[in-house]
Amino acid sequence: MNEYIRYLNLPKIPSSLLEDFKTNSQLCPHMTSPFFKTGEHCDEITKWCQQNISADSFYGVQIMDANVSPHKDQANYAGIPESKLVYLVDPGGDSVKTVFWDNNEKFLKYYVIKPFRWHLIQVNVLHSVSGIEPGNKRWAVTTQIFHQENNE
Ligand SMILES: [Fe+2]
């Protein structure tokens, strides 16, 4: 069976950097959408990730305060992303599911993604997030790893 999530054995982000982000950002109380991405307050996390994960990448934090319906990730400056590298910090609940669907929104597979592990997630397949408990925030450090030519 296809896997849409793959864990990678990459170093863990120091918890002090994650705590600093949480303190400084307050997890973005004025989010403009239920699925919010920010590069603010991420400088130290970015520096650490560029030194320890991949230098040629930009890092940010994504925050969700509600479930997300099936979608494919949007095109960005590097084109339509096939996969993203994610480090989940707070799942937002005990059994939050990341669900994958085919193009007719027929169920394919779900995962309860483990926190404090890097994983690759395929984002050019429809996926949704459900089970975020009210009042909770699910947040993660995220990036795309580009091939060198994309950065020239
Ligand atoms: Fe997505």
Protein architecture, described:
This protein is an alpha+beta fold and 152 residues long. The protein contains two helices and ten strands; from the N terminus they run βαβαββββββββ. The longest helix is centred in the N-terminal third of the chain and has 11 residues, at 15-25. It has one domain (5-146): Jelly Rolls. The protein has a six-stranded antiparallel sheet with strand order 1-8-5-10-3-2. The protein is globular. Fe (ii) ion binds next to loops.
In short:
The chain is of the alpha+beta class and 152 residues long. 14% of the residues lie in helices and 34% in strands.
Provide the succession of SSEs: EHEHEEEEEEEE
* Sheet with the most strands: spatial strand order: 1-8-5-10-3-2
Shape: globular
Mean pLDDT: 92
Biggest sheet record:
6 strands, antiparallel
Task: Indicate the proportion of strand residues.
Answer: 25-35%
Tally of structural domains: 1
Task: Determine the fraction of residues in helical runs and give it as a percent range.
Answer: 10-25%
How many H/I helices?
2
**If you compute it from the alpha carbons, what radius of gyration comes out, rounded to the nearest whole angstrom?**
15 Å
- For this structure, what is the CATH class? Mainly Beta
The CATH architecture:
Sandwich
Structural class: alpha+beta
Q: Find the CATH topology.
A: Jelly Rolls
